Q: What sequence folds into this?
């Protein structure tokens, strides 16, 4: 019990979890009570404050996963494989939420549940497919150095795929609608920007918390397995 | 050549072996025995440098001096012995490839069938070709997993003679039939 | 240069194996022709022959149908490539010959490059048949499309060979390969169809970018994918 608590303390988890709860609560409050109502879309536009921070956090997850993958391949960091896996797992979760919130927003904005014109949404679809295959790959190979290596390589491919796919989507769009697209999004007022930033930080903190929780859980699993074996061998 | 301490190997939840020590220098002949599934093949793959142990320290020489014979012959069935050996000769940087290949095919009694597809061979003939492949680049460290597999009397005699000649190198042999190589063994490792 | 000689020896081996086994290439050929046939039924043409349509409307409909057919051509090529890639590492896997290749002093990326070259050759051979067939069944293929196909082949083969090696290392290999490969190949399809339809060299440039980026990445990472240490 003592070792577990020490492990938790080492991970700064309670502090992180506390911060996440506070920030998420604060951002919800801001989103619903502080940010001004959008002139066109009304209250349902507020999904934007969830959707974009979640999307950005998903990118952060995949980026972090790729960083850990690089550390695994380059420095041989023994923890990096698990950390990379957990980060990408979180990325898939946030990615799915992005698709969900994006779909809701599309329904609000355009009246359809899916909008091929939303570049971000299409990109996330591609990434969702790609990173889902990451898990299929991991499940199909026995744990070991080869699985860790392959996962790391695949994670790096993913992070290169992000900009390449985005470029591809832009190119594909100009094939159908030959116009030049500037960066989307309305001009934000100060209050909107503030709410957005708080929501974004909240999502990142949430990711950090979930990341640490899952990581600690997986490490405890591994430790438990090791202990079980030692006991078994002794018998 | 090889220096290994406290090696352990685990596949997921299954521990294959642990607390294995191996010391091997030139002139050593290590015989590894044990029933099927005990972990001999895994250990040999580890000593050949194909697999990393999950625990322990392992010092191996550069892979260019290693010759590995696995459970399977490790040759292409659709190619001929000549084509197989030329390919591996190229990859293993064997000098005077043609000569060496010819000599080995003669030694292992495969010269007559040198231009026939390996797929048409008996398992014993494939094993002989595999042995030729292992010796092609004159490795200093030989890791042989059940080399006597599928060999008939003539083939086994060839292998016996070959092993005698390899006494000045470092050899690891896993076998069901320790009696056969007992006179060569300088070290032994028994898997339970 | 020894590296080039290694790649040549390995590529020669791959081509020789296929020449003798005669499994993959005929299957790919038959597959692409079947796919093109199915495409004909899947995307019915002749819509412009509805009576009462003006010349402009007819031309517009015909153009849409051409675009649709070209799109299906790209789909057919991607899946034909997938068929070939699934078989790419079979000889090595069947008798664990990979162990012998991996232990050789030669650079392991040579294995990947040789395989990619071989698959490129097979794909090219199949396209030599598929493109005339497509021109026969649907409409002629222009130079832009051919250029795009060649560039796309490079991307498909480099990325496909790498993911093929990954898939082969685990269970359910034939199932895993499409999952790994298809998301990665989406940009290639975009570049390809863009060049075929729009004709802007921008799409060819994009394909070159894809080939360079992912080719380099695959070349550098093959060693890690194939080693168990």
A:
């Amino acid at each position: 019990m003592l070792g577990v608590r020490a492990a938790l303390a080492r991970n700064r988890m309670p502090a992180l979890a506390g911060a996440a709860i506070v920030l998420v609560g604060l951002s919800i409050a801001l989103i619903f009570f502080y940010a001004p109502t959008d002139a066109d879309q009304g209250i349902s536009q507020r999904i934007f404050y969830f959707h974009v921070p979640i999307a950005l956090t998903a990118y952060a997850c995949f980026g972090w996963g790729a960083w850990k993958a690089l550390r695994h391949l380059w420095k041989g960091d023994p923890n990096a494989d698990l950390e990379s896996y957990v980060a990408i797992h979180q990325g898939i979760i946030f990615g799915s939420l992005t698709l969900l919130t994006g779909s809701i927003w599309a329904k609000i904005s355009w009246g359809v549940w899916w909008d091929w014109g939303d570049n971000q949404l299409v990109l996330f679809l591609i990434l969702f497919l790609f990173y889902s295959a990451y898990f299929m790959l991991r499940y199909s190979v026995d744990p070991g150095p080869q699985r860790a290596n392959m996962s790391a390589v695949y994670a790096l491919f993913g992070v290169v795929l992000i900009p390449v796919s985005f470029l591809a989507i832009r190119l594909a769009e100009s094939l159908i609608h030959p116009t030049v697209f500037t960066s989307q999004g309305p001009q934000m007022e100060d209050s909107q920007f503030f709410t957005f930033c708080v929501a974004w930080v909240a999502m990142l903190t949430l990711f950090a918390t979930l990341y640490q929780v899952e990581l600690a859980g997986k490490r405890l699993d591994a430790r438990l397995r090791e202990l079980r074996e030692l006991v078994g061998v002794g018998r | 050549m090889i220096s290994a301490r406290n090696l352990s190997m685990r596949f997921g939840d299954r521990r294959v072996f642990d607390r294995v020590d191996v010391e091997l220098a030139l002139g050593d002949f290590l015989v590894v025995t044990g029933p099927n599934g005990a972990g001999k093949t895994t250990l040999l793959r580890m000593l050949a440098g194909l697999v990393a142990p999950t625990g322990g320290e392992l010092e191996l020489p550069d892979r260019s001096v290693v010759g590995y014979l696995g459970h399977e012959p490790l040759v292409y069935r659709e190619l001929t012995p000549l084509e197989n050996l030329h390919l591996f000769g190229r990859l293993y940087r064997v000098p005077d490839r043609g000569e060496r290949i010819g000599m080995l095919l003669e030694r292992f009694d495969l010269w007559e069938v040198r231009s026939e597809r390996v797929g048409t061979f008996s398992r014993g003939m494939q094993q002989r070709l595999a042995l030729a492949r292992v010796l092609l680049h004159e490795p200093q460290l030989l890791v042989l997993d059940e080399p006597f597999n599928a060999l008939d009397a003539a083939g086994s005699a060839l292998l016996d003679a070959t092993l005698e000649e390899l006494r000045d190198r470092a050899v690891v042999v896993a076998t069901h039939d320790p009696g056969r190589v007992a006179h060569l063994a300088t070290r032994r490792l028994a898997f339970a | 240069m020894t590296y080039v000689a290694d790649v040549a020896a390995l590529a020669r081996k791959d081509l020789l194996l296929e020449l003798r086994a005669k499994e993959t290439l005929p299957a790919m050929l038959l597959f692409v022709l079947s796919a093109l046939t199915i495409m004909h039924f899947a995307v019915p043409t002749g819509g412009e022959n509805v009576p009462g349509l003006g010349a402009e409307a007819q031309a517009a409909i015909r153009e849409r149908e051409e675009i649709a057919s070209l799109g299906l051509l790209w789909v057919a090529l991607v899946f034909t490539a997938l068929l070939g890639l699934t078989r790419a590492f079979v000889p090595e896997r069947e008798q664990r010959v990979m162990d012998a290749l991996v232990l050789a002093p030669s650079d392991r990326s040579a294995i990947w490059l040789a395989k990619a070259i071989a698959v490129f050759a097979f794909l090219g051979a199949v396209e030599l048949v598929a493109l005339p067939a497509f021109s026969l069944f649907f409409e002629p293929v222009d130079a832009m499309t051919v250029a795009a196909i060649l560039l796309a082949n490079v991307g498909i083969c480099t990325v496909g060979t790498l993911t093929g090696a990954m898939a082969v290392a685990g269970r359910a290999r034939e199932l895993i390969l499409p999952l790994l490969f298809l998301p990665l190949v989406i940009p290639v399809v975009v570049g390809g169809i863009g060049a075929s339809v729009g004709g802007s060299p921008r799409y060819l440039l994009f394909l070159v970018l894809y080939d360079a980026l992912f080719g380099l990445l695959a070349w550098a990472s093959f060693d890690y994918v194939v080693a168990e240490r």
In short: Chain B touches chain A through eight residues (CB under 8 Å). Chain B has one domain: 2-190.
